[in-house]
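B., you asked whether I could sanity-check this one before it goes into the benchmark set. Here's the sequence:
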Amino acid sequence: MLDYNYQRPRYTAWSQFAILLTLCGFGLLLGGMISIKIASAYLHVTAHNLEDAISKPGNAHIAILFQFISTFLFMAVPAFVFARIMNRNAFKYIGFNAAISGKQVFVIIGIVLVCIILSGALSMLNQIIPLSKSLEAYFKTKEQEYDKVVTGMAQMKTTSQYILSLIVIALMPAIFEEMLFRGALQPVMISLTKNVFIGIFLTGILFSAMHGSYYGFLPRLALGVIIGYIYYTSKNLWLSVCAHFLYNAIGITQMYAAIKQGSLNSDTVSNDVLPVYYGIIAAAALYWLFIFFKKESNVVISIYNQEQKPEIYTDQEDKNTYP
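And here's what the prediction gave me:
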């Protein structure tokens, strides 16, 4: 497992950031070209008309394939190649290890449920931020386009389609995104800023901005920061993947229930809006949940290091470098 403070001598933090950015750029171009070529050939449309064609309900499987290929090449591959450049054991470098306990998973379930409440309050806050009429119209148009794509992908009329959606729309993106943002980018940002909170916060900003949704920006920023601290505290990417997947899976399940009831619309796709004071209560609950999660994670890491060659680093070692 990678310690946030570990760097090979020949790679400075800025060099690591440049390498990762370059890899993501190549991945984005490659993923876009391959996805567009496959989808255009299958649907017999030009690239200019591809977005409208993919958003049609009958083409949900192509939309899912399009997302899978582009996300895999833009996030998972660059993260793995970056980790391999930094260390021979790429998977351990970005946090895939067996240091997990049932208590950690149980607490993460609670964290995700509270995070959903916090997201609802932040959605309300996001909506009341004053904007010019032109910006408001622009962001609403983009939000409608985003909801249209998501709705087009979420054609789950049977249980098997629902399970497939959980795997392809909820689980795989969670793995790919966590590999890039938490496993690869977050340690680099912490090294660049020499501050754990700022590094995690900046990673959360980039994570939220990547989704391209203004009205979902604050909820996704909060999700990114919360998952970032799950990873930083546990030193285990599987746990951040678990939290990310649960968050996605709850949204997919809500959409599936709406489809079964015949009430799927943009309100179902978008984040639920809750009073802002709910966010204060949720933040307090998250604080106590993370206290317990940190204690349990330290125990798990200690036991894991005693059983194997020490590869996971404790909070105390982090504090020695970042006072």
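One thing to flag: Residues 96-321 form one domain. Otherwise nothing jumped out at me.
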